Amino acid sequence: MKETAFKDPAKKKFQFPHIYVLLLMIIIACTIATWVLPAGEFDRIKNEAGRTIVVAGTYHPIESTPVGPFKMIQAIYGGMLDASNIIFFIMIAYASIGLIISTGAFNGLVSGLLRVLKGKSRAVIIPVFITILGIASSTIGVFEEAFPFVPIFVGIAIAMGYDAIVGLAIVALGIGIGYAGAVMNPFTVGMAQSIAELPPMSGASFRIFCHIAMVVVASAYIMRYAIRIQEDPTKSLLYGSDMASHVKADENLENYRFGIREILVLATLAIGIIVVVYGTKTYGWYLQELCAMFLIMGIVSAAIMGWSPSETAEKMAKSFADMAMAAMMVGLARAILVVLRSGSIIDTVVYGLAFPLSYMPSWVAAECMLVVQTLLNFLVPSGSGQAVISMPIMAPLSDLLGIPRQIAVLCFQFGDGLSNIMWPTAFAPVLCALAGIKLDRWWKWLVPLFILLILTQMALIAIGMFIGLA
């Protein structure tokens, strides 16, 4: 008699939740926290520069305002409104850059690069562009402004035999390290030094050293990954997936046309970027002015290519549709902050994180400041916002512990910069959506590098403590 073979049901493989589900889970967790954690706040005053800052040592409990289920759902709409400037910037800027990409000008440019750079030498574009983007972030605070260029670098990376992660990493690490090692970023280091009562640009030479060190570590990591998948595509974390579905690489890219129209389109983009940099630096331009400049660049490029107004509009409409998901992510992430504000527990968390540092030796406390600032950026994913909340506490605390205030500022910028491309409450989901990558794939690739860079930052803080950075 034959024995009947029974097969065990196939075990379900764990699937990472959809990013909307993940963000909603965080919103629910924060809502629960408003019922568990005591509400509290610091007193706030306006300093000489007119900025509202917290007063160290003034934390006190206040009446609890826990967030109910219905108010939690309302926070999603509130988050959309609160982040509307970022949402519309992403959609308009991406649609405008989408027009430029559609011209094929970048394909022509990459075609020339592919003819010049052969084999492993192509990887030199990685440190070059990370450095360029890093300088822009370090000096004038470019961050969201670089988002429209994510699909461009993704397309270039795919065409060069890499994958979408490499393209995203160039932009994300460029701006993330730029913020972390910023020399004169007015939105982060400038504000933090002002609050800590340090001279502007003080400690600049050491921060340049820090920036270079992080660029070297990140570039080596990305180049190693890029070369490995160039030799064996199966090594890619995206192998077998529909990577960058809205960014396609041409199979015959090395022979792509690069005529006068394409050159004029790139010239338009270059002039536009120069105007953006000048306007941001000289006139304090922000998202509204930048949106206008991106629109002008896109429309002029469409005119150079001879497209009709309707054809141009159709291309822009498609880009709007592609970015709808990313725009919703921004609003959902901001809803987390809305819940925390409504429950009045942000200051409680800051106080809880900073209080244990007062009992630690200075060398240990300095390193722990980095950890605190990195964790704090999960709740306050804004460089300037984190500065006005944390620096009035960390600056006097560093005095009590014998830690130079410059180190406190360094810990702030380290913690703020890199975590922006890591935390789901910051810009990680948006960057992944722009690159056409699932968030869990990005995290799987980024976490080892993130840990390596955190260790690098800890070593740099130790050096700063040793030399008495001032």
Automatic annotation (TrEMBL):
Q: Name one GO cellular component term.
A: plasma membrane
Transmembrane ranges?
none
- Upper classification of the organism: Bacteria, Thermotogati, Synergistota, Synergistia, Synergistales
The record gives the membrane topology as: Multi-pass membrane protein
Query: Which key words tag this protein in UniProt?
Result: Cell membrane, Membrane, Transmembrane, Transmembrane helix
Name of the featured protein:
C4-dicarboxylate ABC transporter
Q: Chief subcellular site?
A: membrane
Q: Where is the signal peptide?
A: none
Which Pfam families does the annotation name? DcuC (PF03606)
Q: Where in the cell is it found?
A: Cell membrane
